Structure to design on (285 residues):
């Protein structure tokens, strides 16, 4: 999702860009990574590659660590040698989820699950290797047109007559990949210009809601009955990996870079829903 929207955003700006998928570049292969940077000589590298199967990471943590921890470390070393800026995408799952106010960028991390631990390892590798040109961009609750996600699933279910039980005791910030891509482009440009301090940034939508609240909003935007969505608890919907109960992130660091944080999640969702429905229409017909 993010990779596609990032390439689309860069195309609008006319930036010379190379997008490499897993088949073209395995980020755990140090020789391949060095070769790619020598070939393309980028000013900015954005690592949108990750092991994102949260529950599977509980069983295969070593494999997840290779992608989420070793891979970013390999990229950081190659960027250090080439002089490129690195934007490393990370996650709210590095936090314990026991806060009552938004997590600041410098708040202590304490992952609850294997996925969070492996992403935290990637953060440490980037910040340690690239203290002046490494950027960790934490995001959460992503949705977009390029892959499976909660919002797309709800838009499909809204078109049925089903009633749904949706978790209502986890709070977070639904974030459209289009908005995230825009902030990454702005941050990369500011990093190259020397106007954005290196370090951690939180790139989630403003405001907060629950999964159930998000589903209600989606149904309302689509003209479906939000009453068909009923709140349930995390305990009733147990999964292998623990989820943070509170994943709301603060956005104060953007001020230092002279870039506005991402807009409110409701505003973004209202714009995104028609685009997502349009993107799905050919597949349904």
């Amino acid at each position: 999702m993010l990779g596609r929207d990032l390439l689309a955003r860069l195309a609008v700006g006319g930036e010379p860009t190379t997008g490499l998928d897993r088949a073209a570049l395995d980020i755990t292969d140090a020789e391949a990574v060095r070769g790619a940077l020598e070939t393309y000589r980028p000013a900015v590298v954005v690592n949108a590659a990750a092991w994102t199967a949260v529950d599977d990471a509980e069983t295969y943590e070593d494999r997840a660590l290779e992608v989420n921890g070793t891979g970013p470390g390999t990229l950081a070393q190659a960027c250090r040698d080439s002089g490129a800026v690195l934007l490393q995408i990370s996650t709210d799952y590095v936090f314990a989820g026991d806060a009552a106010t938004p997590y600041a960028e410098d708040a202590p991390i304490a992952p609850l699950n294997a996925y969070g631990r492996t992403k935290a390892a990637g953060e440490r590798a980037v910040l340690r290797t690239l203290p002046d040109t490494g950027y960790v961009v934490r995001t959460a609750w992503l949705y977009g047109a390029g892959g499976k996600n909660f919002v797309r699933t709800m838009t499909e279910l809204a078109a049925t007559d089903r009633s749904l039980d949706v978790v209502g005791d986890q709070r977070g910030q639904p974030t459209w990949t289009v908005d995230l891509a825009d902030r990454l482009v702005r941050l990369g440009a500011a990093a190259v210009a020397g106007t954005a301090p290196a370090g951690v940034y939180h790139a989630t939508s403003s405001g907060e809601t629950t999964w159930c609240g998000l589903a209600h909003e989606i149904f309302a935007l689509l003209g479906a009955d939000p009453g068909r969505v009923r709140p349930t608890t995390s305990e009733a919907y147990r999964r292998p990996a623990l989820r943070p109960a509170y994943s709301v992130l603060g956005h104060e660091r953007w001020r230092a870079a002279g870039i506005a944080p991402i807009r409110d999640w409701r505003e973004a969702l209202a714009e995104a829903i028609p685009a997502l429905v349009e993107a799905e229409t050919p597949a349904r017909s």
Observations:
- The chain has a mean pLDDT of 95.
- The radius of gyration is 19 Å.
- The chain has one domain: 2-284.
